[in-house]
Amino acid sequence: MNVYLDNAATTPMAPEVIEAMIPIMRDVFGNPSSSHSFGRQSKAYLETSRRKVAAFLNCKPAEIFFTSGGTEADNMALLTAVRELGVKTIITSPLEHHAVGHTAEALKMFPEVDVKYVTVDSKGHIDLEDLENLLKAGDSKKIVSLMHANNEIGTMIDLKQVSEICRRNEAYFHSDTVQTMGHFAFDLQDLDIDFITCAAHKFHGPKGIGFLYINQKIKATNLIHGGGQERGFRGGTENMYGIVGLAKAMELAYEDVEAHQQHVQGLKDYLIDELKEYFGEDVDFHGETDPSRSLYTVLNVCFPKTDKAGMLLFTLDLKGVAVSGGSACSSGATKGSHVLEGIGADMTRPNARFSFSRYTTKDEIDYAMEQVKEVFEKTLA
Questions:
Q1: Average pLDDT over residues 329-337
Q2: CATH architecture observed for domain 15-255
Q3: Residues of the chain with pLDDT > 70: what percent?
Q4: 166 is an active site residue
Q5: pLDDT value, residue 309
Q6: How far apart are CA 151 and CA 326, in angstroms?
Q7: Which of 98, 131, 143, 285 is least enclosed by beta carbons within 10 angstroms?
Q8: Where are the domains of the chain?
Q9: Which are the contacts of 234, defined by CB distance < 8 A and separation ≥ 6?
Q10: Residue 333: what pLDDT?
Q11: Shared fold status for 3-12+256-379 and 15-255
Q12: Top-level CATH class of 3-12+256-379?
């Protein structure tokens, strides 16, 4: 049996998404920027998809800019803040995805730009008092960039609460919502935020497509120069079948998002109970597990220390169980997880990130748990 429990890295495409994309790949090949009928046909699909996405988020279609994915969108948000809005101070956390963390550090190449890091606790929660103090310090323009839910440990921030703190201090607010888009409802008329990001492959859409939401109050000019696509903000011929696939994936995700949440949270709770029953006090969980403050698709498990800790993921893989030790974007790195280091985790104990989707079943959790038990019966013997 093969069990895929690495959905925070990427998800399998939904069959309905594939079906929606096939006609576009086969028949709708015109360039949306062309004025003839083939181009107009593509343009119609492009703007229909944009309107669909905007409707799900309760925002204006003109606030949605299609990108190649979440990494590009995060880069574009921060670069726009520095280059177009005059931001000199980027406030972020040491737990952010590298798409934000590395970008923030790279932007220090601009004159007088600095990066400040807000304090986090052992579960990955942001110290809101420290955030407020950082915002009050100095008179430079600031942007806060904090992810909605951490991709490794699942701890979430309250977007509305952080937004209110930012507005109180006249700062811009960007949130990497890649892990939560398609998994939680967003009302961007109610949520006062400047930038959020999306990658379709995190909710059963295609890879290589995402979007950046830019609040209409932000006036941004060309970031990628070219033929003037995406209202001049991002030049380059649009990924038509990817955009149609993204819109279809969002449609599926939001058809019954509450049932999806209940199903996946139930699997997560079940795995937690099974792990506690087997390991007792020898198992722990990185990050927040309270359902009201935790991403229901992610569970980061801290296992008992063994001499063969480094072989855990490899052994599970041999048994057909796919899990991760952290962000898939860092899987080739030799350094340990910056997120676990950032919360002060015991890096000598083996950890595994189990991440679920709406296609995950209880039988798959049972099989994975059997393989975990077999690994530790051998290593702890």
A1: 59
A2: 3-Layer(aba) Sandwich (3.40)
A3: 96
A4: no
A5: 62
A6: 8
A7: 98
A8: 3-12+256-379, 15-255
A9: 65, 66, 67, 76, 223, 224, 226
A10: 47
A11: no
A12: alpha beta
Tell me the pLDDT tens digit for each residue of 96-130.
999 999 999 999 999 999 999 999 999 999 999 99
For residue 17 the two structure tokens come to 């998404």
pLDDT-derived band at 330, boundaries 50, 70, 90 = very low
The predicted-structure confidence for 6-31, as pLDDT tens digits, reads as follows 999 999 999 999 999 999 999 999 99
Q: Which of 59, 166, 302, 329 is catalytic?
A: 329
Instruction: Give yes or no for a contact between 65 and 211, defined as CB atoms under 8 angstroms apart.
Output: yes
